[in-house]
Amino acid sequence: MVEFIAREFVENGISPLILTRGYAGGDEARMLQRHLSHTSAKIGLGANRGEVAARFFERYGHMDPRAASGFDKVSQARGLGTGSNTEKIGVVILDDGMQHWRLLRDLEVIMVNGMLPWGNGHLLPRGPMREPKSALRRADIAIIHHADMISDRQLKAIELSLLQVKSDLPTFCSRLAPSHFFEVRNRSLKLPLSAASDMAILCVCAIGFAGAFVRSIEKIGPRYVDRIEFGDHHFIQAEDIGMIRQRLEELEHNFGAKPMVVVTEKDYDRDPGVLLVLDRFEVFVLCSTLRIMPFADRTEEDFKNRLKDVQMTHD
């Protein structure tokens, strides 16, 4: 979602500054840097996001986001001028920023995992939730993620649960749309999703919720899907490679052909070279983009318009 929002501002002539902790090796930050490297987006890493932001403002300066070229008509009507300087920062996006109370914000967007909306009901470290459900009252927008992987009945139940906490909370739905694979030995080599058809696949991942990744692979239609999961942000070790290789050899024996290893982009960016040692087997990265799904007469365009509304009313 951070990348989705950043790209929306970039497309409207506004340079975003993304502030992220770069937690546990910075795999998510590196993925953002790779995806946004040819845009005006800037990425600041560090636990003290206020200090990081101050350094970026000192280096690049800032601009009135209402004067950006993407909103020329509105800007001209308000006498704000047109055009933008892509070096100057026009908006700041906090990654995982809800708990960062020290920084004021104009818009709070909360993501809810539709496949496991409230975890096990416990906060960290007993569960995956950082804050109690009551914290939803601080949200301006809620997004039910992985909405394509649950039933309409489940979707409506989650929305109802959200509205019970905050009755006027606008709710949208999102999904990760797989687009292609690339080979870890040659990032420029892109393969269509159909390359996984009729293949035995071994999903290897160390992410927060592996179920959605595995389900995405299953929906492509391979012959068989196996999985090896590690804890979130885990760095693959030598003993892990041995276990992966053994599983691959078992799959090769069972299906009479070499299986295909698939990892997420986050796993790839954590350590791009670690799986190269599986030289007998091909290792591919699944690439996906976030999409806002139509839900209850609300569309992706409606979500983008809310971003524009906040931008144009910012004072």
From TrEMBL:
Gene Ontology BP terms: lipid A biosynthetic process
E.C. designation(s): 2.7.1.130
InterPro entries xref list: LpxK
Record keyword Transcription regulation present: no
Top-level class of the enzyme under EC nomenclature: transferase
Keyword Secreted: no
A GO term, aspect molecular function: ATP binding
Record key words, sorted: ATP-binding, Kinase, Lipid A biosynthesis, Lipid biosynthesis, Lipid metabolism, Nucleotide-binding, Transferase
Any one cellular-component term (Gene Ontology): membrane
Pfam families membership: LpxK (PF02606)
Pathway stated in the Swiss-Prot or TrEMBL entry: Glycolipid biosynthesis; lipid IV(A) biosynthesis; lipid IV(A) from (3R)-3-hydroxytetradecanoyl-[acyl-carrier-protein] and UDP-N-acetyl-alpha-D-glucosamine: step 6/6
Name under which the protein is recorded: tetraacyldisaccharide 4'-kinase
Species in which this protein is naturally found: Acorus calamus
Lineage, highest ranks first: Eukaryota, Viridiplantae, Streptophyta, Embryophyta, Tracheophyta
